[in-house]
Amino acid sequence: MAAPPRPESVALLEKLVAALSAKGILTEEEIAARQAITDRASPETGARMVAKAWTDPEYRALLLSNGTAAAEAMGVTMAGAPPLGVLEDTPTRHHLVVCTLCSCYPRAVLGYPPHWYKSAAYRARAVRDPRGVLAEWGTHLPDNVEIRVVDSTADYRWMVLPMRPAGTEGWSEERLASIVTRDCLVGVALPKVA
Amino acid sequence: MPDDTPATHAPATHDLGGSSHFRCTPIDPDDSPPDAFGRRVDAVRQLLAQKKMMTVDELRRGIESIPEEEYHALGYYERWLRSIAKLMIEKGVITAEELR
Amino acid sequence: MTAAIAPGTRVRVKDDWPEERGPCHIRTPHYVRGRTGTVERVLGAFPNPEDLAFGRPAPRCTLYHVRFDQQPLWNEGNPRDTVLIEIYEHWLEPVSEGRH
Fold it and tell me: A93-98 and C10-13 as β-strands: parallel, antiparallel, unpaired?
C-alpha cells in the first residue's frame, strides 16, 4: 500500500494553501471544485471508447487517427489537456504504456494513475523486462508477438486499444466496455471473457 | 560509433528506465487512488497551472532536483508538494518564511 | 509544413549528457542516448520542455515517435520486442545507410 504522507508534509500543504489563499490566489471552493472534477474522471471512459471502436469502424478510425477528437466525441473536455494517442494492438503486436521519467498518464480518459504505475519498480522494469512485468499480472504473450513498450516521454498521453476477444460476438457496447479494465488500457492485462 | 558501446554515464535520479536498482523489485499491485492529501496536492497543482503560475515542466524540474535519497523516501505527492513550494518561493509568489 | 525527418528514417540519438553539466530538464531517457532507432511517425510541434522548465521562451520543436529494438538496448529480452519513445528533433541525427 502507498505510505501515508508524513506529518511535516501535511503541515507544509496547509501552510502553502494558507499562504496562497491569503494572497487571493486560491480559494477552498476552487480546490474543492477542481478536486471534484478530477475525481470524476475514470477508466470507464476509456473502456467506452474501446467498446465503441470495437463495434463502429468509423469511430475506430477516428480513435486511431485523432484520440483527442475521439475523446471529445464521448463528451470528455479535452481543452487544455495533452493530446491523446491510441495504440492499436494486433495479433502480432501488443502495447504496454509507461512513463519512465515521471508518471505521464491519460488522466482525461482513465482518471488518476494507480500507485503501481507511478512506482520506481514499474518505471524501471516495464521498458527492460515487459514480459516479466506482464507476468506479474498473469498476462503471457507468445514469443512471436512483439511487445512494444511505449515510454511517454513528451507531450502525448497514450492509451491501448486492445484486440476484441473471441466469444463476444453480438455483445452490446455496455457489455463489451465491462471487460475493458484500466489494466487493459495500460497494457498489463488483456480483456477477458468470464 | 557502434551501438553496443557500454554506457559510462550515471542516469539522473528520476531517469529510471531499466534501472538495475529495481530490476528484481516486484511491483506492488496497489490499485488504490490517491489519498486525500494526494488529491488535494493534485488539485492545487492543476489550479496553479490553470492560473499560469507554474507549468507541468517546472513541476517536473523541481521534482528532478530532489536529492536521490529523499526522492525515493518521499511519497509521490510529497515530491509534488516539495516542488510546488520551491517554485512558488523561487517565483517570489510567497516567501520561505510563510512556509515555516 | 513538412517535418525535417521522414518516417522510416534511421536516426541516432545524440550521445549527449547535459545533466552532467548543470541543472537541466531533459525528456530523452538515458537508455537511448547514442542509440539508433527508426522514426515511426511525426507527432507534431510543441514548445521545448527543456526551456519551459526554467520559464525561458520555448521555441516549438518537432516531436517524433522513434522505435528501438529492445535487445541491443539491454543485451536481453525477446528479439521481436521494441520500445517507442517521443523524442524532439534536436536530439536526433539521421543516419545514412552506408555508415554503420
Answer: unpaired
